[in-house]
User: Which sequence fits this backbone?
């Protein structure tokens, strides 16, 4: 059985732990490194797993090291890992969930040849519906990608891309939930302005988005086809779509995603 050390017990780290345990992973094969005592106590109590404050302690004997900390904390994690007994020759693997940090940043600090896989997750993994995208570092092999895919499939879907596409992935799915929530917020507010109560408007928007996403996922039809099926010529939906197009919706999304991709690249270059 693969032993996994999750470094960072925040929401993303906890979501991964929860998904692995729900998928049948043994508690004895999981350890979390969490420096905040109160948070560590909560995780240990909730999941009956070993939680330690020391990164090197968690890493000892682990087959997979999952770095689930904020980008600004990665250097401190790497400094702590320097005190651990790491050896890429015995099939140890590092998996980075830290946004904007390229695999080369890890490879330069880890033992020569150490395999690294970079992941761009998103927050729906907190409810088991994440869209995780993985990319191989220089020394990662097909079996490493397969292992990471198996691990992350416990919290949603997994897609593999070259690392050169990760910034675009960040713009689309990494930041994507925020766009979705913004649209929901705008629709709820519009419903209230049209006379609905906030509770009713919220319920209608949430269920409409849930059902629409399910249709897009399960029907086998494309987004344009499904949109066209709702849009009768000269009808209410056509009137609404016309206003959205006149407001430059498509251009706004392109510019927004381009800005997100650019910022992701900047963060990767500066290491902030």
Assistant:
């Amino acid at each position: 059985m693969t032993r996994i050390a999750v470094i960072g017990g925040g929401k993303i780290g906890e979501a991964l732990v929860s998904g692995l345990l729900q998928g049948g992973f043994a508690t004895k094969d999981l350890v979390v490194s969490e420096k905040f005592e109160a948070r560590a106590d909560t995780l240990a109590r909730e999941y009956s797993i070993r939680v330690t404050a020391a990164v090197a302690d968690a890493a000892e004997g682990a087959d997979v090291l999952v770095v689930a900390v904020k980008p600004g904390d990665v250097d401190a994690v790497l400094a702590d890992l320097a005190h651990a007994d790491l050896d890429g020759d015995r099939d140890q693997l590092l998996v980075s969930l830290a946004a904007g940090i390229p695999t080369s940043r890890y490879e330069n600090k880890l033992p020569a040849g150490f395999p690294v896989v970079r992941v761009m997750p998103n927050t729906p993994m907190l409810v088991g519906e994440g869209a995780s995208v993985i990319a191989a570092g220089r020394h990662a092999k097909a079996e490493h990608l397969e292992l990471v895919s198996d691990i992350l499939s416990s919290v949603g879907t997994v897609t593999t891309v070259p690392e050169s596409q990760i910034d675009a992935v960040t713009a689309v799915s990494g930041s994507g939930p925020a766009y979705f929530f913004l649209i929901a917020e705008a629709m709820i507010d519009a419903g209230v302005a049209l006379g609905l109560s906030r509770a009713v408007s919220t319920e209608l928007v949430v269920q409409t988005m849930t059902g629409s996403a399910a249709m897009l996922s399960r029907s086998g039809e494309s987004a344009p086809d499904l949109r066209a099926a709702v849009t009768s010529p000269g009808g209410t939906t056509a009137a609404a779509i016309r206003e959205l197009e006149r407001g430059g919706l498509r251009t706004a999304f392109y510019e927004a995603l381009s800005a997100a991709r650019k910022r992701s690249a900047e963060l990767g270059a500066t290491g902030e």
Q: What stands out?
A: The radius of gyration is 21 Å. The chain has twelve helices and eight strands. Residues 127 and 155 are 7 Å apart (CA to CA). The beta strands are 4-7, 30-33, 50-52, 64-67, 93-96, 116-120, 130-136, 156-160.
